[in-house]
Amino acid sequence: MRKARFWNRVARKYAADPIADMAGYEASLQRTRGLLSTEHDVLEIGCGTGTTALRLATSTGRLLATDISAEMITIAKEKLASQPIPQLSFALADADVPMFGTTTYDRVLAFNLLHLVIDLDQTMAMAAQALRPGGLFISKTACIAEMNPLIPHLALPLMRAIGKAPHVQCLNEAQLRAALTRQGFQMVSVERHGTKKKDFRVFIIASKPLATDPPRVSTC
Q1: Is the Cβ–Cβ distance between 61 and 88 less than 8 Å?
Q2: What is the pTM of this model?
Q3: Which residues partner with 141 through β-bridges?
Q4: How many helical (H) and strand (E) elements, i.e. helices and strands, does the chain have?
Q5: Could you tell me which of 109, 187, 181 has the C-alpha nearest to residue 141?
Q6: The domain spanning residue 177 has which CATH number?
Q7: How many domains does the chain contain in total?
Q8: pLDDT tens digits, 172-209
Q9: C or N: which end of the chain has fewer Cβ atoms within 10 Å?
Q10: Which of 204, 217, 207 is nearest to 31 (CA)?
Q11: Can you spell out the DSSP letters for 11-52?
């Protein structure tokens, strides 16, 4: 697949690049960790080179972290070999393809991924299928549509044309929330954790409801 080829090619550089907003990243990790338990079975889709999975795994009972890129998974496994965590495993998988079972997980994580999938509704449906009732979908997504219009309409098309950028969906917060709602999720919280200028990455917590759950949402 074209998107797998792109990420395989850039995986080593991606692994070496520093996190742009470390304070914002740490805030998201802390928030996520507070939603995990050592009794939880957790799935991460689009785990990249495994940095976040390695940070969160000890707060879970079991964490399966997946990515479409074989080279990304190779790097993640190298990291895990040097820092063994028994409850963590990495596997090759496509977030656009339902393959994670039904009502198998208590939490599904998707960080810096949803703007990269081909079919957002299909990915949301897969996450809903994989979650147990009452489980949480936790995501952080770059909202490209909220950036300077020159980025989605000029810079990204040019970069894609010369092979310097992957497929990207130009989403905003409202579209992400709508996609989750279409798959039956209830919004729990919508947050921004960035510490530098305007934050284009939206952090969303959504639940797969029990039959009796009322709607609820908070915005930070």
Answers
A1: no
A2: 0.90
A3: 202
A4: 8, 8
A5: 109
A6: 3.40.50.150
A7: 1
A8: 999 999 999 999 999 999 999 999 888 999 999 999 99
A9: C
A10: 204
A11: HHHHHHSPPS-HHHHHHHHHHHHTT--TT-EEEEES-TTSHH
